[in-house]
Structure prediction request, 205 residues.
Amino acid sequence: MIAYVKGLLTTIEDESITIETQGIGYEVLCANPFHFQNDVKKEVKVHTYHYIREDQQLLFGFKKKEDKLLFAKLLNVSGIGPKGALAILGTVSVPEFVSAIEQEDEKYLTRFPGVGKKTARQMILDLKGKLVIWLPHEENEDSIFYQEDTTSKEKRERIDEALEALKALGYSERELKVVHTELVNTKSGQVDDLIRQGLQLLMKS
Prediction:
């Protein structure tokens, strides 16, 4: 099993990055390859999940270890394959996803590509209570995570509204994916503020 790849980031494609180490180029599939755009020609360390089946071997890469762990958990849910799991990670942060699972927010979960009501319910049944223990900032059941995330469902809706407004301005899905995580981590929750911050991030990229 390949736990991580450390080497020179040589190229970025629409769905993958290539890391060269000891004369070997590893093609690593990523949810948002362009998150690595500032690391081209630099040494990077990417956490990887080695997906092995009889007819294929694929290497999936993640900037954060918790993203890799969530990917592995999602693969254990009936109806979720590697492409579906990667699509989820490409549009949500780990804390945001865990919050949706813990709150049993089926409406939010069905927004992910290929996830219907049945699959959303299956994710909740399989994952509720099993994810928070390995989040980096989880220490006990009185964690700050729950205290700060009590309104996360409402904030997610405001972020979605802000992203729709940015999409209406002509920005592509790929560009919006790049700023999504930044908007999730911002302290401001008002739609107008999120739109302004989104525009600032898009103009920098």
In short: Residues 66-150 form a domain with the DNA polymerase; domain 1 fold (CATH 1.10.150.20). The chain has three domains: 4-62, 66-150, 151-205. Residues 134-151 have pLDDT under 50 and may be disordered.
